[in-house]
Amino acid sequence: MAEPFNTPIPGSTPVLASTPRSSSPAPLLPSLTPTASMSTIPLRPPPQKDQSERRRPIVLHIGDPIKYNPATYTEFSQAFEVIRPSTAERDRGEFKKALQERRWGDFSAIFRPFWGTGGEMGRWDAELISLLPSSVEVFASAGAGFDWADTKLLGERGIIYCNSGLAAAEAVADFAVAMVISTFRHLPWCMGAATLPYFLKASSGSDATTGKTFQACHSLATAVSHNPRNHVLGLIGFGNIGQQIAARFGNPSFGMRIAYYDVVRKPASLESSLGATYYPSLELLLAASDCAVLCTPASPDGKPLITSDALKHVKKGSRFVNVARGSLVDEEALADALEDGRISAAALDVHAEEPKVNSRLVKMAFGEQDVVTDHTQHAKSNFNHPGRVMLTCHNAGGTVETHIGFEELSMRNIMAVSGGKEAITPVNLHYLKKTE
């Protein structure tokens, strides 16, 4: 479910008080507002081999160089010897060889400031983790999700894994607003009916559907569209992102009723401030929700959460949104639920086999834009209209401000742990404690 240890939302993000941490308070996160220069920091020259240089802890920087936070990087590179493997060295085979050879020495931290690069070696599983030197204390990465790394095994090795979900929370919550509204108002249908026929005409030379799809959607979308107000919004995971989504939809502007499920119930004060009702199981939450939003970075056991068994419990005609991880959803089961009307509409920003998108869901996103021109046919099948599914390209967290925060937060996590302080956004401390 949501990250086991929630973190304070930065002062620059005007939303709500977050869940208290289970451990002692962590250092406050500096402002993540985009005030830094955006010029790329060049690679540092080869480190000098004097005695003082050897005493600096080594940080293995995987992925692109720093782009947005030069001031913090100056502080960071003065505190550590930063080594950045080449692209060729990040290929899994060569990366394994380099670890076996101790090519980069006894580094103390792994630093991945960008989500789009630094993952060329593939999943951090037992094969890679077993090759890490015992000196490694912390792995700090961009991104909210961490299903690509075995955080349990890292914790058992004494390595704290820190994600950067805090930096993405505002952007993801904003995107979720659009997706939730889409499921109530069928935006893909409305947009496709207005524009798709013209693209089809340009490619085929036929204007048979031009105008007809517009009028059909204008006439028929009303019968399946609703205002979100007074509907139940069920949040699967109630960490920073879930709380920010709750703050947006629970306020008078939208007036939705907020419900949530998480592996750890949040304090009563937080529930009260957000008007959130706790459900002790996923099944109970799905049964109560008019729209369920999956907003957790990982599942407890690494398996999908939204399965055919789970979908048996949904309220008929409800809606589903995924801004979490594609691997958490059995997409074939979701397509089945959409086809038989258990779910009336869905919106997915993430996909199980990215960049490939499930073909059945694609068909539901576009469909045949003229199938609803027959009012009688539509009346017989309330759920068989095009545009029931909004599909996007893992864009929810993708803003400049998010990437500024990814860089900043990753560096601050490493500096905190190296300095003997609490990590800011750890996700696997419970596994470390089991080894004590």
Automatic annotation (TrEMBL):
<dbReference type="InterPro" id="IPR050223">
    <property type="entry name" value="D-isomer_2-hydroxyacid_DH"/>
</dbReference>
<dbReference type="Pfam" id="PF00389">
    <property type="entry name" value="2-Hacid_dh"/>
</dbReference>
<protein>
    <submittedName>
        <fullName>D-isomer specific 2-hydroxyacid dehydrogenase</fullName>
    </submittedName>
</protein>
<feature type="domain" description="D-isomer specific 2-hydroxyacid dehydrogenase catalytic">
    <location>
        <begin position="124"/>
        <end position="428"/>
    </location>
</feature>
<dbReference type="GO" id="GO:0030267">
    <property type="term" value="F:glyoxylate reductase (NADPH) activity"/>
</dbReference>
<comment type="similarity">
    <text>Belongs to the D-isomer specific 2-hydroxyacid dehydrogenase family.</text>
</comment>
<feature type="domain" description="D-isomer specific 2-hydroxyacid dehydrogenase NAD-binding">
    <location>
        <begin position="222"/>
        <end position="364"/>
    </location>
</feature>
<dbReference type="GO" id="GO:0051287">
    <property type="term" value="F:NAD binding"/>
</dbReference>
<dbReference type="GO" id="GO:0016618">
    <property type="term" value="F:hydroxypyruvate reductase [NAD(P)H] activity"/>
</dbReference>
<dbReference type="InterPro" id="IPR029753">
    <property type="entry name" value="D-isomer_DH_CS"/>
</dbReference>
<keyword id="KW-0560">Oxidoreductase</keyword>
<dbReference type="Pfam" id="PF02826">
    <property type="entry name" value="2-Hacid_dh_C"/>
</dbReference>
<dbReference type="GO" id="GO:0005829">
    <property type="term" value="C:cytosol"/>
</dbReference>
<dbReference type="InterPro" id="IPR036291">
    <property type="entry name" value="NAD(P)-bd_dom_sf"/>
</dbReference>
<dbReference type="InterPro" id="IPR006140">
    <property type="entry name" value="D-isomer_DH_NAD-bd"/>
</dbReference>
<dbReference type="InterPro" id="IPR006139">
    <property type="entry name" value="D-isomer_2_OHA_DH_cat_dom"/>
</dbReference>
<feature type="compositionally biased region" description="Low complexity">
    <location>
        <begin position="16"/>
        <end position="40"/>
    </location>
</feature>
<feature type="region of interest" description="Disordered">
    <location>
        <begin position="1"/>
        <end position="55"/>
    </location>
</feature>
